[in-house]
Specification:
Largest sheet: 8 strands, mixed
Strand order of the largest sheet: 9-3-4-7-6-5-8-10
Shape: flat
Number of strands: 25
């Protein structure tokens, strides 16, 4: 309550209910400053060095007797800025590495691992896959043996958590191994299981580098309706990935069945590929309510049910997101401020109003239709 001293305890504290609503009842008349606070030590005081805080789009509110006011909505962004840490490296064989991180990790295309001997000679390693049962674990394969005759240092590139924080090294050295590698070309999964365009390849991931596994290519079968192709000539391997290309394009109306070799099981795995043909795709028109000026820039993100951003662009007052597979999505729109990267959540003290923010969940997309989302700021 004014005069507001933010170094002192708050006069009133409320917590959100299951609907995300906070109510303050029986307040005295007067002027108030209200903001959201992550009060970790629950002392009713904003410890600025340790606790995040965000303002509403209204800095203050004034109440009279029997009055009722609505502060509006605050959109809390808990940004992950903590990098994953490599905690341990275990050698399962002379070339196979099991790497444990402090949190879930992902690796981007072109990611690499450099391993250094005591004399600073370098051996490269290729990230293979993240363990689906424990997403803190990454398997990799060195391009040369790493014998157990000296300790090794490691350097990472292109390995991060899902928020984009690149991994750091939390160990000094790790031992090698003299154990011969007996890993099979085991099927890990279909990297394109969410669907591909008619001119794109299917990508199949294996548990080891495939340069010495000719059966993976030789045993590939593509069934095209009633025609069986064995082997399929439009395929190649790269590291631990099998790329299966179409003969021009995957034809609409044909039933495709892909059978890939699993060396561990000594049998083929059957894959039913998903193709996104143009007439099976939908679109979304995004229209922002008119503001004081049409020069305001906005940013839109469309996220699928797996949490992947499938559309991401900057626009003025209207845009159309095209070529979207059937499904349900989350759509987010926010104002862009030139002096702030991403969405600006504002500042409590000195007060800076947060940029406008809009989110809608369960936005449906149907094949052949264009839906519409009208952005009304709250």
């Amino acid at each position: 309550r004014y005069p507001a001293d933010l170094s002192e305890q708050a006069d009133y504290v409320g917590e959100a209910d299951s609907a995300g609503t906070v109510n303050f009842n029986y307040l005295r008349e007067g002027k108030y400053k209200a903001f959201w606070l992550d009060d970790r030590n629950r002392n009713r005081r904003w410890d600025r060095d340790r606790e995040a805080a965000q303002p509403f789009r209204t800095d203050t509110v004034e109440l009279s007797r029997a009055d009722e006011k609505d502060l509006g909505s605050v959109y809390v962004i808990r940004q992950d800025t903590i990098a994953p840490v490599l905690q341990a490296v275990g050698m399962l064989s002379e070339v196979r590495l099991r790497m444990r991180f402090s949190e879930e990790i992902v690796f981007e295309e072109g990611a690499g691992i450099d391993i250094f001997h005591e004399d600073e000679t370098r051996v490269s390693a290729i990230p293979l896959y993240v363990d689906r049962e424990n997403t803190n674990i990454l398997y990799a394969e060195a391009l040369e043996p790493l014998p157990d005759n000296s300790p090794y240092r490691i350097k990472l590139e292109g390995i991060s958590d899902p928020s984009g924080n690149y991994a750091t090294i939390g160990i000094d050295e790790f031992p090698g191994s003299d154990q011969a590698d007996t890993t099979f070309a085991r099927y890990i999964g279909n990297d394109t299981r969410q669907g591909i365009a008619p001119d794109q390849p299917l990508i199949i991931r294996y548990a080891k580098l495939l340069h010495d596994s000719p059966d993976v290519l030789d045993s590939l079968i593509v069934v095209e309706s009633q025609t069986t192709h064995s082997p399929w000539p439009h395929a190649e391997i790269s590291d631990n990935l099998l790329f299966i290309y179409p003969d021009g394009e995957w034809q609409q109306g044909e039933d495709y069945e892909i059978r890939v070799w699993d060396e561990e099981r000594l049998e083929r795995r059957t894959i039913q590929p998903v193709f996104h043909y143009e007439d099976n795709l939908g679109a979304i028109d995004v229209l922002v309510e008119e503001s004081a000026t049409d020069t305001t820039r906005h940013h839109v993100e469309l996220v699928d049910e797996q949490g992947m951003v499938i559309r991401d662009r900057t626009f003025g007052l209207e845009t159309t997101l095209e070529g979207i597979p059937e499904g349900s999505y989350t759509l987010t729109v926010y104002e862009i401020r030139e002096d702030h990267p991403g969405w600006d959540p504002g500042k409590v003290d000195p007060y800076r109003k947060p940029a406008r923010y809009f989110i809608r969940r369960d936005v449906p997309v149907e094949p052949g239709f264009t839906g519409q989302v009208y952005v009304e700021w709250l």
